[in-house]
């Protein structure tokens, strides 16, 4: 984290009494992974106005394992902070605004038994059970998810292949370089990364080629994207361009961003 980000996160953890002993400043981005039994108060804060998990993940990651197992009303409370990047708590003791700018990462099985769409193992769930399970993730909540990735079952032979792959160090270097480009883009503004941009900044700070704009327009119409969906596709495309050190968003970046958004949860979705 930058020093300013560390200060923001440390204030929240200090209020919650969660700063490590002897530490006055968080050095690493927070990683919060609440259990699926968490209450509404535990997720966004309670009557005592203490920060919940969403705020404790500020400038870091909020990871929800087995997302459909969470209570739907708890998940729906995340719609606000995913849009405004803050939580407003109004209780008898007063009203407070707590920052909650986090990356939401979640996993989900396609059905309760986990085998819907499996190539060799049959699903044991009935249609009604599958519908109930998948309906816990509402359309408005999924509209706020930028990347939906269907993970197919891994072939047993592939587990034993000794093929070379890109190292984590190489990926990290590329991500850090992309972050540095974004910091340069937002000098003098309130934004820290592409995800922070509002609609005005998105249109003034994102250089998009004419061909990419046409592709984005066609994708918006074909997929019936909402205004929010359109903006989120453009933010993802801008980030993909940053990872490739491209000053301009090109058609390939738009195409990749649209492909990620198109992989909605379905029978091919694997945990």
Short recap of the structure:
The chain is mostly helical. The chain has helices at residues 3-15, 40-44, 53-56, 72-76, 79-84, 127-134, 139-142, 156-159, 168-185, 199-205, 210-222, 227-243, 251-262, and strands at residues 31-32, 61-64, 86-91, 94-99, 103-106. Helices cover 43% and strands 8% of the residues.
How does the SSE layout of this entry go?
Blueprint: H1 3-15, E1 31-32, H2 40-44, H3 53-56, E2 61-64, H4 72-76, H5 79-84, E3 86-91, E4 94-99, E5 103-106, H6 127-134, H7 139-142, H8 156-159, H9 168-185, H10 199-205, H11 210-222, H12 227-243, H13 251-262
Parallel strand pairs: 1-2, 2-5
Antiparallel strand pairs: 3-4
Folded structure, characterized:
This protein has 271 residues and is mainly alpha-helical. It has two domains: 3-155, Rossmann fold (3-Layer(aba) Sandwich), CATH 3.40.50; 168-262, Helicase, Ruva Protein, domain 3 (Orthogonal Bundle). It is 43% helix and 8% strand. It has 13 helices and five strands. The chain has helices at residues 3-15, 40-44, 53-56, 72-76, 79-84, 127-134, 139-142, 156-159, 168-185, 199-205, 210-222, 227-243, 251-262, and strands spanning 31-32, 61-64, 86-91, 94-99, 103-106. The strands form two sheets. The protein has a three-stranded parallel beta sheet. Strands 3-4 form a two-stranded antiparallel sheet. Helix 12 (227-243) packs across helix 13 (251-262). It starts with a helix and ends in a 9-residue tail after the last helix. 23% of the residues are buried.
